[in-house]
UniProtKB/TrEMBL annotation:
Pfam families: ABC_membrane (PF00664), ABC_tran (PF00005). Keywords: ATP-binding, Glycoprotein, Membrane, Nucleotide-binding, Repeat, Transmembrane, Transmembrane helix, Transport. It comes from the Eukaryota. This is Uncharacterized protein. GO terms for cellular component: endomembrane system; membrane. One of its GO terms (molecular function) is ATP binding. Residues 300-534 form the ABC transporter domain. The chain crosses the membrane at residues 20-44, 120-139, 205-227. Belongs to the ABC transporter superfamily. ABCC family. Conjugate transporter (TC 3.A.1.208) subfamily. It is found in: Endomembrane system.
């Protein structure tokens, strides 16, 4: 006779279905791990690609922006875009979105389970949702503006730090450390005000969310008591457990939602850069590319050229008209603000013309792509620029020349001996802004770079900083001996340096007042140039 037996044991190992449960739970854990890994990888890859693409688009927009953008935009704002805003998009926003999506599923599944166990909870949930949406509507208006204010308030702080670092030598020389430190404290406090208010607003929201979560838990507990007997205890307990965990998850999720929306102001700023920043002319116009050997002669013609730096500023160049023949050496003189340097601005199309045309070897430069134009011209600016790297990199950044050609260019600019004295030679390091070289040496290195480019047109803006007589003589000798095969325009700040020029262009108030040989202008005592020379000689010791 075989009968049924019921065995009671407190040892889980005695459960005949133990292996089945272990298999099921083990498989579920593996599935959860696999899906989590796939989800994390896909999400990370997608957000990383999106942020990288946005960074590249913003960088190209800023890189291709006209000079007017940099004239009107504080450096702190640009630094903020590529530091704080990009950091938010790269790190904080993806993390917040991932947590928000995950917690949203947890909240929805918990509420759905409570509603399935206690259908009468649904009307209560609707009322609580209305209250929640009202709180969020009130909250999100302020939180978004506070975050935007926080971002805006940091730009003056970044600008002040940047200005202080760049002018540290001057600040120390005049003993203005306390003034700049006090200004820093004021800007720092102003930038933290919005951040402090943002945290206060988050605390305001947290209290109200805790009350809503408490109402959800209390309602679930009340239904468990009222409906006892009609609902299985196991389901009621599970529903109560889900409702209990909503307190922390709900508040955290709403805070994530608010913070995500606030962080999206950084995305908005980057998107505004992409959408609204006006770019320069295209780098290349395929339908109108110049000959590779252009310009062959270096003839330059200005015809009724008018230019203003921005649409809301006065005209700087007022109907400038002149012609420069091949291989001429033109010296440009005039008082400060007369428009001398603006000639280089329009020649390189840093600012587009308001009227008139500029032709080089008969080609209107406004019809060319910027890369095609600028790559065929050379410039040695007033403040010669050297980049962090090596001497070789600064002379030949694209590695188009041999070391022999580099040494030849250095010899022509009287810098061979100086570079040879360095232990590493052409591989010698160049620090930021070329501070390990004097202003004159930097200008000579820029001349060597221009020689290697072998351009038919050279634009030189003389350095106004103090240069010792030996270096100055090297610069003048290099200009006279090594740049004889190109048309040269020299913005002169010392009248003695233009006496050997082919012709002298005298500017005043954005207009050409005289254009003739130095001898012809000096022969006329009534000429502006002769008066400038006489005044300079009378002021000299």
């Amino acid at each position: 006779m075989v009968g049924n037996e019921t065995m009671i044991s407190t040892n889980i190992a005695d459960n005949p279905d133990l292996q089945y449960y272990q298999t099921v739970y083990g498989c579920l854990i593996l599935v959860i791990l696999a899906t989590s890994l796939v989800r994390g990888f896909v999400f990370m890859k997608t957000t990383l690609m999106a942020s990288s693409r946005m960074h590249d688009q913003v960088f190209m927009k800023v890189f291709r922006s006209p000079m007017s953008y940099f004239d009107t935009t504080p450096s702190g704002r640009i630094i903020g875009i590529f530091s704080r805003d990009m950091d938010e998009v790269d790190t904080r926003v993806p993390f917040l979105i991932e947590c928000l999506v995950q917690n949203s599923f947890l909240i929805l599944s918990s509420l759905l389970f409570v509603c399935l166990v206690f259908p009468y909870f649904l009307p209560v949930l609707v009322v609580l949702m209305v209250v929640f949406l009202y709180i969020r509507k009130v909250f999100r208006v302020g939180i978004r503006d506070l975050k935007r204010l926080d971002n805006v308030a940091r730009s003056p702080l970044f600008s002040h730090i940047n200005t202080t670092v760049n002018g540290l030598a001057t600040i120390n020389a005049y003993g203005k450390q306390n003034l700049f430190f006090k200004r820093f404290l004021v800007l720092f406090d102003e930038s933290n005000c919005a951040f402090y208010l943002f945290n206060c607003a988050m605390r305001w929201l947290a209290v109200r969310l805790d009350l809503l979560a408490l109402l959800v838990t209390s309602s679930t507990a009340m239904f468990s008591l009222v409906l006892r007997g009609s609902v299985e205890a196991s389901f009621a307990g599970l529903a109560l457990a889900y409702a209990g965990q909503l307190g922390g998850i709900f508040q955290y999720s709403v805070r994530l939602s608010a913070e995500t929306e606030a962080k999206f102001t950084s995305v908005q700023r980057l998107n505004n850069c992409i959408k609204f920043l006006v770019s320069e002319a295209p780098p290349v116009i395929e339908s109108n590319r110049p000959d590779p050997v252009w310009p062959q002669y270096g003839r330059i013609t200005f015809r009724n050229v008018q230019m203003k730096y921005r649409s809301d500023t006065p005209i700087i160049l007022k109907g400038v008209t002149f012609a420069i023949d091949s291989l001429e050496n033109i010296g440009v003189v005039g008082r400060t603000g007369s428009g001398k340097s603006s000639l280089g601005v329009v020649l390189f199309r840093l600012v587009e013309l308001a009227a008139g045309t500029i032709r080089i070897d008969g080609i209107d430069i406004s019809t060319l792509g910027l890369d095609d134009l600028r790559s065929h011209l050379s410039i040695i600016p007033q403040d010669p620029v050297l980049f962090i790297g090596t001497i070789r990199y600064n002379l030949d950044p694209f590695e188009r020349h041999t070391d022999a050609e580099l040494w030849s260019a250095l010899e022509k600019t009287s810098m061979k001996e100086r570079i040879s004295s360095l232990e590493a030679g052409l591989s010698a390091p160049v620090v930021e802004n070329g501070e390990n070289f004097s202003v004159g040496e930097r200008q000579l290195l820029c001349m060597a770079r221009a020689l290697l480019r072998n351009s038919k047109i050279l634009f030189l803006d003389e350095a106004t900083a103090s240069i010792d007589s030996e270096t100055d003589s090297k610069i003048q000798r290099t200009l006279k001996e090594s740049f004889t095969n190109c048309t040269m325009i020299t913005i002169a700040h010392r009248l003695n340096t233009v006496m050997w020029c082919t012709r002298v262009l005298v500017m005043d108030d954005g207009k050409v007042v005289e254009f003739d040989t130095p001898a012809a202008l000096l022969a006329n005592p009534a000429s502006v140039f002769a008066q400038m020379v006489a005044k300079a000689q009378s002021n000299s010791p």
